[in-house]
Amino acid sequence: MSKLRVLIWNEFVHENIHEKVKSIYPQGIHEKIKTELISCGSDFQISTATLEEPDHGLTDAVLSETDVLIWWGHMAHNKVEDTIAKKVQSRVLQGMGFIALHSAHFSKVFKLLMGTTCDLKYREAGEKERLWVCNPGHPITEGIDDCLEIDSTEMYGEPFDIPPPDEQVFISWFEGGEVFRSGNCWRRGNGKIFYFRPGHETYPIFHNKAVIQVIYNAIKWAAPQGLWLSSLAHVPVNQAREKIEDRGD
Ligand code: ZN
Questions:
Q1: pLDDT surpasses 70 at 87
Q2: 201 Cα–ligand 1 center, Å
Q3: Which pLDDT does position 46 carry in this prediction?
Q4: What global pTM score does this model have?
Q5: What separation in Å is there between the alpha carbon of 248 and the centre of ligand 1?
Q6: How far is CA 2 from CA 5, 42, 44, 83, 213, in A?
Q7: Mean pLDDT across the stretch 184-212?
Q8: What distance in angstroms lies between residue 225's CA and the mean position of ligand 1's atoms?
Q9: Interval between CA 194 and ligand 1 midpoint (Å)
Q10: CATH H-level superfamily of 4-116+182-229
């Protein structure tokens, strides 16, 4: 069986202008995730793309050869061209998997797919987070115990303005008392979407093996399955499989 084709997209801005982020991710968040996923096994064919590339690295050719797209963005959502965001949305509807990490809740693509504001509460105080497994039988939680702990991170809190997830995989508790739906699955068209909360850039979140394990599991879960939708097509009466009696209306 051919390998799943995974594309990791990163706006790649903080790592170039913020010393702390640069020290945590000297090659960029996308390269760190790629390296860590490779260390989990050789199941995927992984490539990367960034905002500054022509078409943000998301040309028709690239998208047509991508099975699962991982998205990380934070401060440059508005620099993503609307036409490209819509193209990615269309590709998800066809069947490409889409994994939105952390602040990608505010990315154009995720908002298009959700149809809501995707607003939430946030606080940056280096507090502890526990992501509790809501559904231990779900393939995305494979290898994770009761919960996944992150010692120091940014808080995201409810209300999170998303459509009710089709499946809730993780729910987070924070040291300050808030809770948050932090691992959520949806289907849009033929595509599977997973939102996963961890990933604030000033903490070494993608150095955490359990976080990477979840992303690895999510890629496998989000892989395209079955036939893809074809385009809208009119079927003339004389081309129906069975002869239709002309009722004259
Ligand atoms: Zn953040």
A1: yes
A2: 6
A3: 98
A4: 0.94
A5: 62
A6: 9, 11, 9, 30, 21
A7: 97
A8: 32
A9: 17
A10: Class I glutamine amidotransferase (GATase) domain (3.40.50.880)
